[in-house]
Amino acid sequence: MILISAIILSKNDENLIADCIDSVSFCDEIVLIDSGSTDRTTEIAKQMGAKIYLDKDTSFAEKRNIGKQKAKGVWLLYVDSDERVSSVLRESIKDVIKQKSETFVAYKLQRQNYYLGNHPWPYIEQVERLIKKDALEQWFGELHETPQIKGNVGSLEGYLQHYTHRNLTDMITKTNLWSETEAALRLSANHPKMTWWRFPRVMLSAFFDSYIRQEGYKVGTMGLIESMYQAFSIFITYAKLWEKQNER
Hints:
Elements: E1 4-10, H1 17-23, E2 29-34, H2 41-47, E3 51-54, H3 60-70, E4 75-80, E5 83-85, H4 87-99, E6 106-115, E7 119-132, E8 136-140, E9 146-149, E10 153-163, H5 168-188, H6 198-213, H7 220-247
Parallel strand pairs: 1-2, 1-4, 2-3, 6-10
Antiparallel strand pairs: 4-7, 5-10, 6-7, 8-9
Helix pairs in contact: 5-7, 6-7
């Protein structure tokens, strides 16, 4: 019987995938949903025992739904290639599955972000990533996908370590890709016409959220760079929205 399946999303992550798979090696099954890698990602994953499924064209939510369809576990643990299950979180997961409690059908994991290398971010996110297969109805959302869960959700000790924004080049590349989708979604939702004053408003809001609310100021220069990047990233999204509105 397969108790827990790890479901990993990847694309061209040959430098990340081995560490990711190693961190979920306690799972009974590892399912990799790959978006068409052209490097050694799938080769490495296969060597480490993962089951590989190719899905190039759908959204992140749909890739997670495909992972559910392919996985055979009672429980599903969703991770991305740049995430790692810490030793404390691993033991927490094993404990709750062993207990067979019927109180919760899913658990929120504490996600610790690391920016620009190994610099930990002060703000800890909560993400629903450990879910009983029969309680997961679907994932939805073009970006920032969310699971629709039937039942109570608990929380676990330990961190899901997220090594995102590893360098400035990756950050800018990601912004250019994701901002196109975000701008298109806002356009289809009939976002109000972009005018000059909206730009400083959204940029200041993004900077305040990152630097003050999430306490980015506590981590010195890196916190300032990351917070300014957040302001830049939202600027690009809204500039693309302005461009699309004018094209329309």
